[in-house]
UniProtKB/TrEMBL annotation:
One of its GO terms (cellular component) is membrane. It is a single-pass membrane protein. Its main location: membrane. GO terms for biological process: transmembrane transport. This is Multidrug efflux protein.
Length: 217
């Protein structure tokens, strides 16, 4: 008798658990959208030589903090009349030197990158959202950001911009060969720019992997 009662009870419990799981999945999908196809990004600018010459001085090193207009390097050039002049190369923005390629005394050509600088105080997150979900994503929606390098810490942010093109539009290689006459539909992703309220003093740098959870409703 006890066994006859126990079996239906277990069935009811199992069905209730399944129903609860389905309800949670539907509620979670309606309320949130999560993706780990995201990373920390920032404006990285190259400081390059405008003309040919000799790199006579390198005024910065990797990791240095610079101000806008601060000298990065000096280049010695020879004018058409044979007169030697010195050209000072400056940083276009205030930021941190994240790459320094110049070696004093080397010959440089126009466009040769001497250094790269970025503003580590003005970082954001770029997340790639499936196109079938992008209609639910709006500007100013709240976002939870988790950076892989600092697991267990959640940063708060919001949707700043939805890029008006898919990620595939910026690819150098096409996703399909239109000349073959065969078309394969490929799910596209749309870049979404997320502004982070603050990283709590952690050493966050461009390129770090993140996971984002967008509050849809």
């Amino acid at each position: 008798m006890r066994r006859l009662i126990l079996i239906p009870t277990l069935v009811v419990v199992a069905l209730f658990a399944i129903a609860a799981g389905v309800f949670y999945w539907i509620y979670n999908s309606y309320t949130f959208y999560s993706t780990d196809d995201a990373q920390v990004t920032g404006q990285i600018l190259s400081v390059s030589s405008p003309q040919a010459g000799t790199l006579s001085a390198v005024d910065v090193k990797l990791g240095d903090t610079v101000t806008a207009g601060q000298a990065i390097a000096s280049i010695s050039t020879v004018a058409a009349n044979g007169e030697k002049t010195t050209l000072t190369i400056t940083s276009p923005i205030a930021g941190t030197i994240i790459q320094e390629n110049g070696i004093q005394g080397q010959s440089v050509t126009p466009g040769l990158a001497l250094a790269q600088v970025t503003d580590l105080n003005n970082l954001y997150v770029t997340a790639y959202v499936d196109e079938n979900q992008i209609a639910n994503v709006k500007q100013n929606q709240d976002v939870d950001v988790n950076v892989d390098a600092f697991s267990g810490t959640t940063y708060k942010g919001h949707i700043k911009q939805i890029v008006q093109a898919t990620a595939g539009s910026f690819s150098l290689l096409p996703s399909s060969d239109m000349t073959s006459g065969n078309y394969t539909k490929v799910g596209q992703r749309v870049p979404v720019i997320i502004s982070v309220d603050g990283f709590g003093g952690n050493d966050i740098v461009p390129g770090m992997s993140t996971k984002v959870t967008i509050h849809l409703h």
